[in-house]
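A quick word before the example. In earlier lectures we treated sequence and structure as two separate objects. From today on, think of them as two lines of the same record. Here is DNA repair protein RecN written that way.
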Amino acid sequence: MLIHLHVKNYALIDEINVDFDDNLNILTGETGAGKSIIIGSINAVLGGKVSKDMIRTGCDSALIELLFYVDNNVVLSKLHEYDINMDNNKELLITRKININGRSVFRMNGQVVTTSIVKDISTKLIDIHGQHEHQSLLNKKNYLSLLDTFCGVNVLGLKEKLREKYAYYMELSSKIDHFMLDEHTRKKEISFLEYEINEITSANLIIGEDEKLKEEYTLLSNGKKIIKSMSEIHTYVNGDSTNMTGAIDQIGQSVRLLSGIKTLDKNIMNMEEQISNIEIMLSDFNRDINDYISSFELDESRYFEIEDRIDLINNLKMKYGDTIDEILKYKEEKEKYLEELINHEEHLNQINKEIIKLKNEIEVYCGDLTRIRKEKAKHISKLIVNVLRHINLLNTNFIIDVNRANKFNSNGWDEIEFLISTNVGEPLKSLSKVASGGELSRIMLAIKSVLAGSDDIESLIFDEIDTGISGKTAGLVAEKLVQISKEHQVICITHLAQIAAMGDAHFIIQKKVKDNVTHTLINKLDKESSINELARLLGGIKITDAVIANAKEMKDYAEKVKKIQ
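And the structure line, produced from the sequence above:
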């Protein structure tokens, strides 16, 4: 549910903060006041395209924030999948900062995220239906998902199983292409595979040998430097033929001197013990140096042998994988493919049998999906017709038609069509061919009303869903919005008083000029102010006492209706 909207330096908005109600939120205002800017800002933070020109004049950036309360396990699972931090109060803050250079930065609870992540999450948080969004009803691709949403978990479970089978079916089908080669191409492929396999096999690779070779290569390539340094250290420890006294002799002399005076002062006894330990350690160190120098062999032939081996392994890595493990796995895959090509007829027959078996299993799932969809489609069609008649499309007939396509896919083999007749005696025709803009608005409302209990998206925005309606129809649409708001949070932009009166929270959007600068503002209205706004919607230029009384009566009636709904 959308809790809060914060917009700063966007279009005509200096800064606004809006706290939304749980149920039906109404937004009204004069034409051009900035209602579309409010919806535009919400769309922007949900990943919609925004021009840098939308940054308020004189500002370097714009900031939009949406705060949601998330109580949907699907959304929470998605957030966990994307490693988005959620605290115990289940609040999710989505922000978008639009910079003057045209770049944007999205964040979720402070973490920078991509536009695709925002879109993926937001589609499960909020659903926006505007004057143009109703055009989604004209796209047949959307019909199946709408129907399956109503069908619920039974269909979702079947579709999940079907997708797994279909993915394997497509994998096997693609394998067929590997075997449908002419004899010349097949032999050529076999020859190339044998070359690759032999090249890797002849290298006799051992996992981890490349790291060991690098260590030995580093040692040998720096052998002269190591021996030179170790020899110098040996001289410092032992001394040399030029009468240079080594550290061992000097430490030994110090031990003898301290031994002669240690009984004179107990502190000297401690010092004598310390330097005796140093003498022992230095003797051990001297033996280790002697052993190292004696055992070190600078073998040039071994150096070049390692260099050649490293070059061979690196060459194989360039061709077959970044590591020896990957190279050996590549070899295993090619050996398997080679065996399949050599015995291609046997494998082809085996795959064809598996495909036939899978196809039969898939068709069972498709048949089950069709049966459920057809049953639900009849039920939903009746419900939608009832709602359409309730909102004054009295002679309308509406059918969700489920037909079998020529082939199946991961969703089954069903093609869905929405058919409608808006006048008595007229045949059912495709929704995309006969519905007007106003009718599309009401049909979308009817569908949302029917799906209210099944659709798990918590927040719905209707942007001027009242387009093309008035009078009694407007009142009926208003009642339907109230009904939907019992299941979902609804935010509705309207220019009709009948709808505005039903709001649990009423906001007015206004355009004000201050110091020769235009600002768009949004404020929550109390009951009295809401009645005055209803009067403006009803009365036009002059607001009379009669219009005020009518507005008050409309508000009182709305309160009664909401208690009944």
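Notice the following. The mean pLDDT is 86. We will return to this example when we discuss secondary structure assignment.
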